[in-house]
């Protein structure tokens, strides 16, 4: 059961009307919305591939933009934490090292996902027509689905614990929600892309 009193106490430390907090929420929500809208537009029109001369060049450009946006998001997240109070009783070594361990695991998932998928596999290459030969099932995909997203969420969770930040914990929840929505939005569409690929192979 959820301890409602503890939740109220925890989020009593967070000023959700603070400008920095609002900017962080908007940056978190914007990123997956941006890359999904742009990638679907590219899949429908091939406009970016035409502008950049090839699907691969267009995918690399979108990937670079996503990386920059993620850096902006992380900066906004950190600034929002710094502008709000720490949680009393959490600013100790055990909290810091627990957060550090969680962030390390998240980083492992993110890096290993990138190595398993490659740049185009990570940054929506299938929407550009750059399809993988088969589904990746090696680590970390052998442990959980969408390890890139959940690894990133774990990094933010660990970062929040390291700073004993209720604001960070609330923003981490926003990250988790935004990724959950992104998975629900991306999953069926990506599966349909590969379903069409299989139909094309069988028809030859």
Automatic annotation (TrEMBL):
EC number(s) per entry: 2.1.1.17, 2.1.1.71
InterPro entries: PEMT/MFAP, Phopholipid_MeTrfase
Principal location class: endoplasmic reticulum
Record flagged with keyword S-adenosyl-L-methionine: yes
An MF annotation (GO) of this entry: phosphatidyl-N-methylethanolamine N-methyltransferase activity
GO CC, one annotated term: endoplasmic reticulum membrane
Pathway terms, separated by semicolons: Lipid metabolism; Phospholipid metabolism; phosphatidylcholine biosynthesis
EC top class, as a word: transferase
Keyword terms, alphabetized: Endoplasmic reticulum, Lipid biosynthesis, Lipid metabolism, Membrane, Methyltransferase, Mitochondrion, Phospholipid biosynthesis, Phospholipid metabolism, S-adenosyl-L-methionine, Transferase, Transmembrane, Transmembrane helix
Reactions catalysed, as given in the entry: 1,2-di-(9Z-octadecenoyl)-sn-glycero-3-phospho-N-methylethanolamine + S-adenosyl-L-methionine = 1,2-di-(9Z-octadecenoyl)-sn-glycero-3-phospho-N,N-dimethylethanolamine + S-adenosyl-L-homocysteine + H(+); 1,2-di-(9Z,12Z-octadecadienoyl)-sn-glycero-3-phospho-N-methylethanolamine + S-adenosyl-L-methionine = 1,2-di-(9Z,12Z-octadecadienoyl)-sn-glycero-3-phospho-N,N-dimethylethanolamine + S-adenosyl-L-homocysteine + H(+); 1,2-di-(9Z-octadecenoyl)-sn-glycero-3-phospho-N,N-dimethylethanolamine + S-adenosyl-L-methionine = 1,2-di-(9Z-octadecenoyl)-sn-glycero-3-phosphocholine + S-adenosyl-L-homocysteine + H(+); 1,2-di-(9Z,12Z,15Z-octadecatrienoyl)-sn-glycero-3-phospho-N-methylethanolamine + S-adenosyl-L-methionine = 1,2-di-(9Z,12Z,15Z-octadecatrienoyl)-sn-glycero-3-phospho-N,N-dimethylethanolamine + S-adenosyl-L-homocysteine + H(+)
Residues that span the membrane, as ranges: 20-37, 95-124, 165-185
Topology versus the membrane: Multi-pass membrane protein
Compartments, record wording: Endoplasmic reticulum membrane
Superkingdom field: Eukaryota
Listed Gene3D superfamilies: 1.20.120.1630
Keyword NADP appears in the UniProt entry: no
GO BP field: methylation; phosphatidylcholine biosynthetic process
HAMAP family: PLMT (MF_03216)
Name listed for the protein in its UniProt record: Phosphatidylethanolamine N-methyltransferase
Species assigned in the record: Struthidea cinerea
């Amino acid at each position: 059961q959820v301890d409602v009193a503890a939740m109220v106490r925890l989020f009593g430390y967070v000023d959700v009307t603070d400008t920095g907090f609002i900017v962080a929420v908007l940056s978190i929500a914007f990123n997956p919305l941006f890359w999904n809208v742009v990638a679907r537009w590219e899949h429908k029109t091939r406009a970016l591939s035409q502008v950049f001369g090839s699907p691969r060049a267009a995918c690399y450009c979108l990937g670079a933009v996503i990386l920059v946006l993620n850096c902006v998001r992380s900066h906004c997240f950190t600034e929002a934490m710094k502008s709000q109070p720490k949680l009393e009783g959490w600013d100790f070594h055990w909290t810091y090292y627990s957060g550090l361990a969680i962030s390390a695991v998240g980083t492992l998932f993110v890096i290993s996902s990138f190595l398993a998928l490659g740049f185009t596999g990570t940054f929506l290459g299938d929407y550009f027509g750059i399809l993988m030969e088969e589904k990746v099932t090696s680590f970390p995909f052998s442990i959980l689905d969408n390890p890139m997203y959940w690894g990133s969420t774990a990094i933010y969770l660990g970062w929040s614990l390291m700073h004993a930040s209720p604001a960070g914990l609330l923003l981490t929840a926003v990250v988790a929600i935004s990724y959950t929505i992104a998975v629900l939005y991306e999953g069926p569409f990506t599966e349909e892309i590969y379903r069409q690929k299989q139909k094309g192979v069988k028809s030859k």
